[in-house]
Structure formats: structure tokens, C-alpha cells
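pasting for ref
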Amino acid sequence: MRKIMCPMSVAALAIAICLASAPSAAADDFLTDAKGIPASIHEIAAGGYWSAAENEGFFRVVVVAAGVEHVVHRLYIQWLAIDAETGGYRLVRTVAVEEINGGPDATLDIEAAFPDLDRLDLSIEVHPRGGGPGQSLVLVAGGNGAYEIGPVAVATAFRMMCRNPRRAYVATFDKAARTFAVETAAGATSYEVEAVDEIDDVLVVRGRTAEGGPAFVATLAGNPRIEFIADEEVIQQDTCHPLP
């Protein structure tokens, strides 16, 4: 089980409020709370800061599991408020994520982030129990007790501005069409794509330049560049930077 409290990504004000408001309790109280967590709770992620009306507090994401041989997960978003009178926390709202809970049985992998005040970003990997393709979703929640959810936008076209001692040019790789083109002031030239690899989450495109020219290897992220190769040696390396 994973529990995240007051992460560094939250603004300093939120961290100060969260830490200063933590209730004082004996070690036995914490142990009692830990023992009181139902066995069906598969995963918890908590943190961030939200405010609405006269309340302020933090987010909590709860994955509940059921089943033994056929395990299924359900997902819930909670808003907890800081109780100024008791110095503790109180649950303000719990919302079921029906887009997942009302769909086919599945197990989930989640990763929570809190990039700003009044914001929870939740990455969700959905693994259907009956087989078939999974889903990559992103959920965004605010301090108003509501959320939005949708598929992760997958980039299919990658554009880079590249330079060598002679000229600057734009290189474009279309992942869906599996095409690679270089555009200069004189016009566009297509390169032949022979292989597309993903190395440490970075796309690397390999192929041949036009008109019997050298081979090329284009690295599209991290340290973007295009290398030109002849007789198994790099004869030129052009530096690049991504374009929107």
C-alpha cells in the first residue's frame, strides 16, 4: 500500500498547512488507525491541497479490491478537510469514478500527482480482467468536488528543428503513417523508415536518406538528434530541439 502525504510538488503554503494541522497522537493511536484499515483497501494515494467555501484540506485516492481468483478494483476520489477545532481531519466528499467502476471488471495501476493548489492529476492504467486491450486514462480533480477523466493523448507526429553547419531544417516523423520527412527552404524530402524502436521511453527511428544517401538514426526525445551513418560510422550528427 502506498500513502503519499504533503508531497514536495505542492506549494509551500499547502505543505505548511498540512504539517501544522496534523493531529498530535500517541504511537498507539497511529497503530490503531493502521489496524482499522479494511483489508479490501488495495491502495491509497493522498496529498495536495484544495479549498472551497470555508473548507480546506487534501485529496485522497482509494482503490478498493474484491475477489480472490478474479480480483477487481473500484476507484474513489475523496476530499478531506482540516478540522480546526479538533486538529484532525474529516471526510467531506467521496465520489465514485463511474467511468471505471461501471465498466467491465478490471484491475488498476494508479499514480497521483499534485502539480498545483486545488489540483489532483491521476494517471490510471486499466487492465481488463477478461483480456483485451487496456486503457491509459488521466483524471483531473479540483477543490469543487468534481473531476474530469479521459484518455491520455498519444502523440502520433513528432517535429524537430535541426541544424548542421550548412543549414537548419525541420524533421517530421509520423508514427501512425510511419513516414519521416525533412523540410528545408528548398522543399521537403522523404526518408525511408526501416525500423522504429522505443528505448527507455524514447522513440528512435532508423532508415535511409534519399537517393542512395547514408543511413540515418533519429532520436526524438531526451537528447534529440539525427545521426548520419556510412560504413557503420557516424559521419555527421545534427542537433535538434522539439517543436510544438
